[in-house]
Specification:
The complex is a heterodimer of chains A (about 260) and B (about 350). Chain A is an alpha/beta fold. Chain A has a domain of about 180 residues: P-loop containing nucleotide triphosphate hydrolases (Rossmann fold). Chain A is about 35% helix and about 25% strand. In chain A, strand 11 and strand 12 form a beta hairpin. The longest helix of chain A has 18 residues. Chain B starts with 13 loop residues before the first helix and ends in a 6-residue tail after the last helix. By secondary structure, chain B is mostly helical. Chain B is globular. The chains are: A alpha/beta (about 260), B mainly alpha (about 350). Chains A and B meet through helix 2, strand 6, helix 3 and helix 5 of A and helix 1, helix 9 and helix 10 of B.
């Protein structure tokens, strides 16, 4: 099967500093990928490169075999959506519905009024994320977790083929974490979406993702199924001995927890 | 995701009805404000040294037969163009303010703070002092110099504070304020150097509609309509920009180009306003805030509402400017500062010291 999103010897950085180099990834439709790595390893940078928010220093990103270099920003936005980590949107009294409706912009053209279909997609997305009751509230009145769901809803309203989520679980309490993880899985399975998300909490990785990519020391150190990557011999060189790994009692998937250092 | 979705909406959900109500309410408010603007223009025409009764007003405005010729002249030659110009300038400054606040994601941004107004005033004063004679695209030398002055100042502030494609908004506003102070000092110096009477200098630095005629309206209107129209067409990209550069870019917008176009258009509106009426502060700051408090932050609604509120605010400010110390005219900027300043501080305090 042809990968939906692929990177070929991708190198990214800012000015003259290289953040990572020679990253090769193949993400297929229906897969959930978790990007892990220590702080500053370039997880968000890689996500930005996958959405063409930054130009790579070398190498390229292919969507359905076509280089993002040859796609217009709006075409990319119709297929690839990013839910960023931080929400500056809360600064203005924009309503939840207006914020989510922005996701329709790349489909409709920015000067056209929203159509019936756009409104319907927005309503369904609001319902799906349990935001319909607060659709008329302004972002500044929402909690951190609610704002996160609005950001996700906007990305979903783009009806993307590839969904990029930057730390989607931050600020969410455990109930919404569980709910969101379930939703991400069902989106990938039922709608054949490829999902790439960054996670800093390694305990959540195996239950979330089909595949894991470990970014550290400026390169992709390991990739594969959670049980292949979440191993002491892979993680220890990067995270040191500060973690312990044991199989989940029911699923047998590896669970990674921090080991308090004395 | 491209496949069919399970749930279809056959009837409007409760939130949808709420949204429709909101739209209807916005329309009603818009119409109400339009009527209020009409009434304000009437009031402006009726009030002044020569008082005109409301009952005579319709026939004077329609130039019916048998009306008093001197009253007709006051209404048609003096007061109507002046009131209309005040409305246009108010709407232009308010639209520019909305755009600057959204572009810089900062509640304190307005044409004055980012340096557009003072740049325009300095340019216009230079043109007047040295008698420039060039023009371009229907802009006379003064308007053109005002526009160039405003553009150079705003882009200088942007250039001075940009680092690696990212402009720090706080330093941008500081740079804009510093440039504004320098240029205001320069404008005052030029005016005094050429021995302009002090009140003329005041009129430039604080704004005035004294002696404005139909020709000013005719010059200004196309620019304001163009600027407002373009900003309104770009209302949704403005929405996206307030959600953050990252979001706007991932939605397929070229943040850089939108910034350049919007800054230029908003600066043009501010520059034309200054060229026609001098530097008038607070309208571009206060009108967008009032509109945002009343109608929310969606720019499709926010832009026209701000423009209407700005127009009404400036028409009334001009009425006061003509009447408080009559027969002496006060520069209108004193009135807008006196009205807008306390209001702004009140809003700031009421919202716990922050506007974001």
């Amino acid at each position: 099967m042809k990968p939906l999103l692929q990177t070929i010897r991708l190198s990214c950085g800012y000015d003259s500093t290289v953040v990572f180099a020679d990253v090769d990834l193949e993400v297929h439709a229906g897969e959930v990928w978790a990007l892990i790595g220590p702080n500053g390893a370039g997880k968000s940078t890689l996500l930005h490169a996958l959405d063409r928010l930054i130009r790579p220093l070398a190498g390229e990103v292919l969507f359905e075999g076509k280089s993002l270099d040859h796609l217009r920003p709006r075409e990319i936005a119709r297929s690839i959506a990013l839910a960023p980590q931080r929400a500056t949107a809360a600064a203005w009294p924009m309503t939840v519905r207006d914020a989510v409706s922005l996701g329709r912009g790349p489909h409709r053209g920015w000067m056209m009024p929203y159509t019936r279909e756009d409104r319907q997609v927005v309503e369904e997305t609001l319902v799906m994320l349990g935001l319909d009751a607060m659709a008329e509230r302004t972002l500044s009145t929402l909690s951190g977790g609610e704002v996160r769901r609005v950001i996700l809803a906007r990305a979903l309203a783009q009806q993307p083929r590839v969904l990029l989520l930057d730390e989607p679980l931050t600020y969410l309490d455990i109930q919404y974490q569980a709910e969101l993880l379930g939703r991400i899985r069902s989106l990938a399975r039922d709608h054949e979406i490829a999902v790439v998300l960054t996670l800093h909490d390694l305990a959540l990785v195996a239950g979330t993702a089909d595949c894991v990519a470990l970014l550290a020391d400026g390169r992709l150190c390991a990739q594969g199924a959670p049980s292949d990557v979440l191993r002491p011999e892979v993680l220890a060189p990067i995270y040191g001995t500060s973690l312990e790994i044991f199989p989940h009692p029911q699923s047998g998937l590896p669970v990674v927890l921090p080991k308090p250092q004395l | 995701m491209t496949g069919g979705r399970k749930k279809t909406f056959t009837e409007k959900s409760a939130p949808r009805q709420k949204e429709d109500r909101r739209l209807k309410r916005a329309w009603q408010w818009g119409m109400g404000l339009l009527l209020l603007l009409g009434a304000s223009l009437m009031a402006s025409v009726a009030m002044g040294a020569v008082s005109i009764s409301m009952s005579d007003l319709p026939s004077l405005l329609l130039r019916a037969d048998g009306v008093d010729a001197s009253q007709q002249a006051v209404v048609w030659e003096l007061r109507l163009p002046r009131a209309l110009l005040a409305a246009l300038v108010g709407a232009g400054l308010a639209s520019a303010g909305v755009a600057f606040q959204a572009l810089f994601r900062n509640a304190l941004a307005d044409p004055y703070v980012v340096g557009a107004s003072s740049g325009a005033a300095f340019g216009a004063t230079l043109a007047l002092t040295f008698g420039f004679t060039f023009g371009l695209a229907g802009l006379g030398p003064v308007s053109l110099a005002a526009f160039l002055g405003a553009m150079i100042t705003v882009f200088a502030a942007l250039f001075l504070t940009e680092q690696g494609g990212q402009a720090s908004v706080a330093s941008l506003l500081l740079a804009g304020s510093a440039l504004a102070m320098m240029l205001s000092a320069g404008t005052a110096f030029l005016l005094l150097w050429r021995s302009q009477p002090w009140f003329q200098a005041f009129n430039w630095l604080l704004g005035s509609f004294s002696g404005r005629e139909w020709s000013h309206v005719v010059i200004g209107a196309p620019y304001f309509i163009f600027c407002f129209g373009l900003l309104w067409l770009l209302a949704r990209p403005l929405d996206a920009l307030t959600a953050g550069d990252e979001v706007a870019q991932s939605l397929g917008l070229s943040v850089r180009w939108i910034r350049i176009v919007m800054v230029s258009v908003a600066t043009l509106a501010a520059a034309v306003a200054v060229a026609l009426a001098g530097v008038i502060g607070f309208v571009g700051l206060v009108a967008p805030h009032v509109a945002r408090l009343m109608f929310g932050a969606s720019h499709r609604t926010l832009l026209p509402m701000s423009a209407l509120i700005g127009a009404i605010l400036l028409v009334w400010s001009d009425i006061l400017a003509r009447t408080v110390l009559a027969p002496v005219e006060v520069p209108v900027g004193i009135i807008t500062a006196a009205l807008g300043g306390p209001f702004f501080l009140y809003v700031l305090k009421a919202r716990g010291g922050r506007l974001a």
